[in-house]
Amino acid sequence: MPEATKTRILLAEDHALVRRGVRLILDSEPDLTVVAEAGDGAEAIEKARTDQPDLAILDIAMPRLTGLQAARELSRLQPDLRILILTMYDNEQYFFEALKAGACGYVLKSAADRDLVEACRAAMRDEPFLYPGAVTALIRNYLDRAREGDSIPAKAITVREEEILKLVAEGHSSKEIADILVISVKTVERHRANLLQKLGLRDRLELTRYAIRAGLIEP
């Protein structure tokens, strides 16, 4: 496979021996290549800036900045960068924090030889990768919240924002949306700006994709 079409990976792990082992797993795959390595979270952010990888694999426990702190910062600086968290902790709290920080997958080091390559490919397909214990944790969390009467899951956007998102995705202009909802164009624009910011999206195309995923419109 030509270099240009391989997934370019940044690998951040503070133990050189572990890093070497993980790199061997990744570099032996025809569609993956490690283009940069980092020994801590701060260095990972630097390397992501200079090497422009497609995917960052971050160990959770690193000096200077943890993998979670680095993931938060990288999600903000490079929204298109896919992030996987590599950890020795089968811990629900870390797992949920990783998802909140912008990671699309959580891989246990003990199963890296089995799961990591699959997780990389899932990330590049924009699919989450969850190891079996994480799926159990998600379901348990969902059921606990249902039992306590919490909204499941907490919605990222308001009802009004959802209405506007749907109309934007259907191709209506701000003026048409204002007329349909009987509000001012300025209010429509404000809601639209809020939507982009809240959902971390950039334009109408991404809003439309989100609306399809959220089941608001048919693809």
UniProtKB/TrEMBL annotation:
Pfam families, sorted: GerE (PF00196), Response_reg (PF00072)
All residue ranges annotated as the HTH luxR-type domain in the record: 150-215
Keyword hit for DNA-binding: yes
An example molecular function term from Gene Ontology annotations: DNA binding
Keyword Nucleotide-binding among record annotations: no
Residue(s) carrying 4-aspartylphosphate: 59
GO biological process, one term: phosphorelay signal transduction system
CDD domains associated with the record: LuxR_C_like, REC_NarL-like
Domain Response regulatory residues, every copy: 8-124
Domain of life: Bacteria
Keywords of the record: DNA-binding, Phosphoprotein, Transcription, Transcription regulation
Name the UniProt record assigns to this protein: Putative two-component system response regulator
Taxonomic lineage from the root: Bacteria, Bacillati, Actinomycetota, Actinomycetes, Kitasatosporales
